[in-house]
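Structure tokens please, single chain.
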Amino acid sequence: MYTPNPNQSPTANRGWQRVFQRGKLTLGIMFPIEVFERDQPTMLNQVALAQFAEKAGFASLGFRDVPLRDPNFGDVGQVFDPWAYLGYMAAQTTEIALLTASIILPLRHPIHIAKAAASIDQLSNGRLLLGIATGDRVVEFPAFNVDFESRGAMFREEVKLLKIYWSEFFPQVSSGFGHLQGADVIPKPLASHVPLLVTGHSQQDLGWIARNADGWMSYPRSIEAQAQIVQRWRDSVEAELPGQYKPFTQSYFIDLADNPNEAPTPIHLGHRLGRNALLVHLRASKRIGVDHLIFNVKYGKRASGEVLQELAEYVLPEFI
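Here you go.
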């Protein structure tokens, strides 16, 4: 194992350094890297596509946490358990960051999360960026015997506990999740904690997120609307922690057209567009302060490998 350094900031980790550079926009790709209808992907050829993305210069691979199939929701993420798939992909790659979008804290015990995340952090040599959320799939909560309305308070408590389990040795902890005494949570992560990115508001105000997270992850909007959201985030960080840099990340669904000059038309949480319009959109996103943007190709018409190839050749070079 790598030797933990509880005095080191998680922003020194390799994954953080690959994804976040102040004043620069980097690009990621979400699993499944696949175009598919309905809710279940095939999950075929994902290793080859992930390795191509890494070699091409994508900054991150995105992993989802969807415990149950809800036919009404229309999306099961990458199907496989996120921790198992993170470990699998960590062994298939060497440099690209591994970003969860996002682990649902209230559905998991904080000791399990702390151990799993620190394990991936160690096994990947500091490439994990832990996106976290409260969850919004109502059907999942009774299956785990968790009160949906309590998820915000549970989220706050779990973030606090995760940082204790990661940074302290043999802590004495009493919480709603149990009592720990005379034992330790291992392994420890490489730094004081695994980098945390809160997704959406997760039932919290921006001030709390600014104080407790290392960055904020949100959803696609028009450039004009997103500019206001990014500014609100920057203002919150400055008010809570003057002078600190805490990045802004967003997802973005694309249906990349064959015609490089095709104008953008809206799709769910993104656009169908040609690569030239995509470049315009990405440059505008960079201008308003988006630090990292994660593509999702689910709603596309072309094969995902073909889309990655075009992005690698014509789009990525400007954002590496």
